Amino acid sequence: MKSKASIKGHPLHPILIPFPIAFLxxxxxxxxxxxxxxxxxxxxxxxxxxxxxxxTALAAAVPGAVDYFTIVPPQSSGKKxxxxxxxxxxxxxxxxxxxxxxxxxxxxxxxxxxxxxxxxMLFVSGWLGGTLVYRNQIGVDxxxxxxxxxxxxxxxxxSGSIEVATSNELETDQMKLLHVGNKRIVLAxxxxxxxxxxxxxxxxxxxxxxxxxxxxxxxxxxHGSQFDCKxxxxxxxxxxxxxxxxxxxxxxxxxxxxx
Length: 259
Ligand code: FES
Known about the structure:
By secondary structure, the protein is an alpha+beta fold.
């Protein structure tokens, strides 16, 4: 799903995270060099790197939090993974903050132990973050033939007939994510009509709006389950449960969703 914290479609979180990764690993490396060479300039450099690492980690957390709350599909394996990613990162930053405060008070072993732990947490967090991008496609804006630009809209009205698009707003095979109250519903245009169905894949909660739709079939981007957009029935697994569908009508150039 397209990142909300981005510049011209480029997500900010992956742009910022190389800084804390480099600075915090550099902290451990320079403190190790200090222990080996007893050179005070290594110790001072490590201290500066640690401050830079903590500050840039906090800066990188801001767009990460925006994406966590706005685009990671709720009730999904991706949300669970994103929560673990966030918690490990918070723990990692706390470990480095503690190491920073103890720099002139504790022994080298304690400092190196804390920084080593922080770097391990950094790797675990990176592993989870990589899975979030490369498997769960968080922050990715995939475009397939005729999909057009990512479309999304919020509606306060949560029942009755809701105007959700104009008749010519979507191309054939294009989708639009509708936030209707707490519901996430996909509006999709086939060759002959507009259809609406739940955004949540029944396998592990992938966002179908971020997937691909061709000839009235939508494919989940996470593990490839396919659903009939009109009936919601599963056409290919691993999902086994159908998705909910909703009535859509078109009148005088406007598209209405009924809830
Ligand atoms: S979440 Fe696994 S196929 Fe959709």
